[in-house]
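Figure 2 data, in text form.
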Amino acid sequence: MTKKMFTLILGLFIMLSVGRSLGALNAVPDGTRHAALGATCIQVNEGDPWQCLPGSAFLVTPQIMVSVAHACPWLDSVRPAHKGVTFDEKIISPSKVYEIDQFICDPLFAWDTQDPHDLAVVFLKGPVTNIRPMSLPPILDFLDKGNLAYKTYVTLVDRSLTTLVGWPDLPVWGNRTYGTFVITDLRPGAIMLTPNENHPTQACYGASGSAALFTNTNVAVGVGSWFTDWTSDCNGPTGYTRLDTTQARDFLQRYLPENLLPK
């Protein structure tokens, strides 16, 4: 694939993602606080340098990650020679990339803005041994059973926006960042998050697959998805696909160890 064709395909993916996928405004550098969030990378052709591009995923076991289904059409379009994930803080020219074995998207995802099936499971070819995975909600409908009060704080972990050296027309996602949202609505398929004066982090265009964790915990309750109520200027609530619903668990339990999703 030529550089021009690759750029055109990526540009189409970004245009399709505008108003949908999620980047963070008013967030701060994460360092290694939430190191389990990785950036998706590709080698377009055999032997090319790794390019880390829109899309994130987070570890739930040393070798399995959770991401989003709406990344699959783009990956299928590009058909890179290799797919991988890096956990480097700075991801331009990453020092280590873990190659992806399988990127499996929920076949029931239908591109509906209220679709609870925007989920994917990512299998790595080898384990990540030096990073603590994130935890998943311990029970079905966890958020509906007294574990969520409105105005609960959720930490968003995402990537900042930058460009590749020599590719000024090609946006990519940079360092991990994090910030705090307030849960303002709970929907059947999503938690809706809104900034306020004291917690101004706001989701905007960019890296889908970001993680929403209960603040001060390692429990991921949502993944950056196709849900949003905000306008083109990123003003308004943002949705994260819930990880505790019947739809989410029916998909995830096909691939994850049983102890991660106890019945």
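Caption note: The chain has one domain: 1-263.
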